[in-house]
Every structure is written in structure tokens, then in C-alpha cells.
Amino acid sequence: MKDEVTAQEIVAGAKPKRLQLYKVRLVKERTLKFAVTEVSSAEDLAKIARSELGHLPHEEVIAIGLGGRNNIVGVVKVSQGGLGGAAMMPGEVIRPLVAMGATAFVLAHNHPSGDPTPSRDDLVLTANLKRAAECVGLTFLDHLIIGSVRGGGKWKSLRDVGVM
Fold first, then answer.
1. Could you tell me the CA-to-CA distances from 159 to 37, 62, 97, 127, 147 in Å, in that order?
2. What does the pLDDT look like over 22-46, one tens digit per residue?
3. Would you state the CATH architecture of domain 29-157?
């Protein structure tokens, strides 16, 4: 492949540099079947999150991407951790949402202990992710915390409790 150099670079005496060209793709892992395709409440999203996360013995975080009419565009696992947490950076959440064409999203993660009370780390993550999402034009609608199904399947919406 021939290196292309602009006229300005030739005049300036610049040597051509090789840059890598990348493409980001989403790969469908499996299909989830739900009666809900348009979201009208946090309860609708909690049903999806509970079915994906409520039975797990470790923490996992998913993002539910939504389109312009609150239709569900896709669901992506963005982090998996241990019993005490699942670390992630905002870019790990935002990157797949942008790739799937989402305009808004809801983050959901589980607390295997069964207690859906948000931790300090949950609150910090929510604030940081909200700022990062705004930078790329995504609307961060809610952060759901799902308790273990074995513990009754309780859940909390950080929007409903006034955090967002």
C-alpha cells in the first residue's frame, strides 16, 4: 500500500507516518425475549434487569440502550465483578451504546447481597457517567440496583429516590 503525503507535508519535509484504521462492531451474543419493547416506567426496565442479574452470585452491570421513542435498541453487559463490586470506566458503558445507535440509556447492576441500597461507589459512578454521557449527547435516564431474587428481588431506581 502506497503512503499518501499531502503537498503541505512534502513542503515541510515531513516523513509519512503509518496510522492504524479501526472499526468498532457490535456482535450479537444472544436474543432476549420480553413482552416490553417500549419503556414507559422504571418497572419495565427493572423486569429486564432482574431477569438478567437477579440470580447472579457476583456483581454485573448492564446498559439498556433506548431509541428516540423509548424503544429498546439493545442490552449490553459492560462489567462483571466479584461479590463486592464491578469496576468500570464511563467509556466502557458509552462506547457500545453509541455503536448500537442508542439516544438514551439506563444502567443496571445487581447487589448479590439482596440489599438494593446504593453504595457510595454507586453514587460516584452515577455522577461521573452522567457527565460523560452528556459530553457525547446520550441521555442517562436512570440507574437501577437489583437485589438478589433469592432475597425477594427488591430493586431501587436512583432517579426515583432523587439521586439523578
1. 21, 17, 20, 12, 17
2. 777 777 776 666 666 667 888 989 9
3. 3-Layer(aba) Sandwich (3.40)
